[in-house]
Write a structure and sequence with these properties.
single chain; 542 residues; alpha/beta; Rossmann fold; Alpha-Beta Plaits; five-stranded parallel β-sheet; 11 strands; two-component regulatory system; transcription
Length: 542
């Protein structure tokens, strides 16, 4: 640390400097000044930890210097040098935060005692200051992280009640009302516009974030109204509330300037997108999926503009995933090796998606992950390593390699060819026998399927068949039949308007009350309650 000595008499400064140097304290430099103005210049331009100053000096005295230090809120610790007749003045200087005072003539031992005490105080305060700064930096970093994490959760579709949502906004110090109108804007860095590794990419993203925040801050009253996150696919998304001071047109101009500045300063190409006005508490997930899906469809010729994403009409967003689970479901068809029917089922859905042209990346991912789970299940049952399927690894590494229905068709065709070949290689083994059993049960589920009828179909003794099946699958045949009936019942409840009695007949129960009792024991509610609860949930989400 540095020390500044101030006295109008040089011999006093010489004496003090000799004494201080003889103490062998950890002092970087000793500065001198013979007047208040010179002392203040040194204090203003250098980091002075301790000041020793006389009170009585010509023109300006020590109190003038104290007032300057006090008004500027300098952290310098002050030790007054005072004669006996000035003792009362020294006492009144305590209001300026004076650490201590020394009476002239100054004894070396007393000077050393006061300096050591003051240096210890400075060291402790510096340590506390560093800890505070570190905590503040960590807090701000963690706050940015938590803000981004919360926003990405909302983008991913996680729902919160109004009370929970508002509480989270307050905890993260985000000055954005729960029901506010806002826009979502996203930036995607073109990977072919720069050469570098993932670390370079992170640096570019931070630079993009800083430039965006700086420019948009001009149109936003507080930084607490700019909310952003970086998703796992290196999209930089930010949410901006709209109000009287930042209209939609103004934000469009600002975003255009952001794009131009980023590309000029960083010498990279970016894709920039802007949503229409949306409601914060309701539309973040659907908007995010539209932005991601739209970005994947962009051509190279169109990335010079700020793309405007139109809000998707929820009424034109069909649930394609539902058709995959309708009886017979895709997994049911694959399990009994009805590959042509399975592919036709998927193909019909994908053809409809292409024709409707209102699907999002979410629809593609739903279908892909559903097929992926079916494919993994069948591969495991056949004791085959599905990692040998090259497109499997590609999809795991980057799910966004699937960006069109045709991509899914190609993926599924290769997967089913692979599984079909596996089935042909194992036509004489136990898996084929299980497939025969499941096919028979599926075909005759409306009838009274029994162990004896199944045994007759596969030419095995019922007792042997029952034990063998339990050993190979881990569950009984009756349990499989029950699970299949419940699954089909759920599908009929949610996808048709059929009466409970009719559904009971279709799944193999002649007595409706018996079916209702079994269903309630399994799902903890009656079929009608189940249908009503699921329908109300869909209405709530829409």
């Amino acid at each position: 640390m540095d020390i500044l000595m101030v006295d109008d008499e040089n011999f006093v400064l010489d004496y003090l400097e000799d004494c201080i140097r003889s103490f062998d304290l950890k002092i970087n430099a000793i500065h001198r000044a013979t007047c208040v103005d010179d002392a203040y210049d040194l204090l203003s331009n250098m980091s002075i930890s301790i000041l020793l100053t006389d009170i009585r000096m010509p023109e300006k005295n020590g109190f003038d210097l104290l007032e300057l230090i006090y008004s500027e809120e300098l952290p310098t610790k002050i030790i007054l040098l005072s004669g006996y007749s000035e003792f009362d003045f020294a006492k009144s200087a305590i209001q300026y935060g004076v650490m201590d005072y020394l009476l002239k003539p100054i004894m070396p031992d007393e000077l050393q005692r006061v300096l050591v005490k003051t240096m210890e105080t400075v060291t402790k305060e510096n340590r506390k200051r560093k800890e505070f700064i570190t905590k503040r930096i960590n807090y701000r970093q963690s706050q940015h992280f938590l803000r981004g994490q919360f926003l990405f959760e909302l983008f991913q579709g996680k729902s919160y009640s109004e009370k929970e949502f508002t509480k989270k906004l307050a905890e993260l110090q985000l000055d954005i009302p729960y029901r506010s109108d806002c826009i979502v804007s996203s930036i995607l860095m073109k990977t072919n516009s720069f050469r570098g590794d993932s670390q370079d990419s992170e640096l570019y993203l931070k630079a993009i974030m800083n430039i965006t925040e700086e420019i948009l801050h001009e149109a936003i009253p507080t930084r607490e109204q700019l909310w952003y996150c970086i998703d796992p696919y290196h999209f930089f998304h930010f949410v901006i509330p709209l109000n009287l001071t930042n209209s939609d047109d103004l934000m469009k101009q600002k975003l255009k300037r952001v794009k131009q500045t980023i590309e000029a300063l960083l010498n990279i190409r970016i894709v920039m997108l802007q949503s229409e006005s949306i409601q914060l508490n309701r539309d973040l997930h659907s908007t995010y999926m539209q932005i991601v899906n739209y970005t994947l469809r962009l051509t190279e010729q169109k990335d010079t503009m700020v793309h405007r994403i139109k809000n998707l009409d929820p009424s034109r967003s069909p649930n394609y995933f539902q058709h995959l689970t309708e009886a017979p479901s895709l997994i049911d068809l694959m399990e009994v090796a009805r590959w042509n029917e399975a592919y036709q089922k998927v193909e019909a859905i994908l053809d409809k998606m292409e024709k409707d042209a209102v699907f999002t990346q979410q629809h593609l991912m739903e279908i892909m992950y559903y097929f992926f789970s079916c494919f993994s299940y069948i591969s495991a049952k056949n004791n085959r390593q599905h990692t040998y399927f090259p497109e499997y690894i590609t999809f795991i590494q980057n799910p966004f390699t699937i960006s069109t229905p045709q991509d899914i068709k190609n993926w599924i065709q290769k997967g089913m060819d692979y599984l079909s070949n596996t089935e042909n290689e194992n036509t004489s083994n136990k898996n084929f026998l299980i497939a025969q059993i499941h096919a028979f049960i599926s075909k005759n589920i409306q009838q009274n399927v029994t162990l004896h009828s199944i045994a007759e179909h596969v030419y095995l003794h019922p007792v042997y068949l029952s034990r063998w099946y339990k050993k190979e699958t881990g569950s009984s045949i009756s349990s499989y039949i029950f699970q299949l009936r419940m699954k089909k019942a759920v599908t009929l409840l949610l996808t048709t308007n059929k009466k409970i009695a009719d559904i009971s007949q279709e799944v193999g129960y002649q007595k409706t009350q018996y079916f209702i009792r079994l269903f309630k024991e399994h799902f903890k509610m009656t079929p009608q309650k189940y249908r009503e609860s699921k329908n109300s949930l869909e209405i709530h989400h829409s």
